[in-house]
Amino acid sequence: MSEWRSLRRVRDGLEAARREALITAAIAAIEEAGSMEATTMAQIAARASVSPALVHHYFGAKDDLMIAAMRHLLFGFRDGLTRRLSAARTSRERVSAVIEGCFDPSQFSREAIAAWLVFYLYARRSSEAARLLRLYFRRLETNLISGLAPLLGPPAAISVAAAAGAMIDGVWLRQALTPLTAPDGPAAVRMVERYIDAEIGT
Known about the structure:
Tetracycline Repressor, domain 2; about 200 residues
């Protein structure tokens, strides 16, 4: 029985690694093709060095793979944010943790930026993609308000969090529309931090 469990764990680990490789390949293929429509399962399979049949085996249709890629990026954002927030000791540090999490190198990369631009458009016709985007917006806003409320009071914290969130999304959109410019996460963090400092009055 223990040998069977060990074999199952190995098999599950291999399948998880294959799914991860296919999701990574999908994100890279989206960045290269520039749109979801121009991205094919064959291109994704070639990047992952597997057959198109294997991609369909793990994800079914291309829409299923796109949703899996969105979840992958969102989970990465959540994990990075949780790690930074756990290290924050003050309310102001919590705000900085959220801002830095939005521009973490693992998120603010050419591939991820291109993928998110495609996902935003995809959400206009996919209810699940729209739900995932709402989840991201809610998590971002809630965490910003949590850090800002002790510094500004709840009403002001809500409006400042909304403005900071719009600024963060604007930086991402500008970067997506200027793909030849290398993403500069530290500069983006400094810009949003200056806005927060101005609102707090430090």
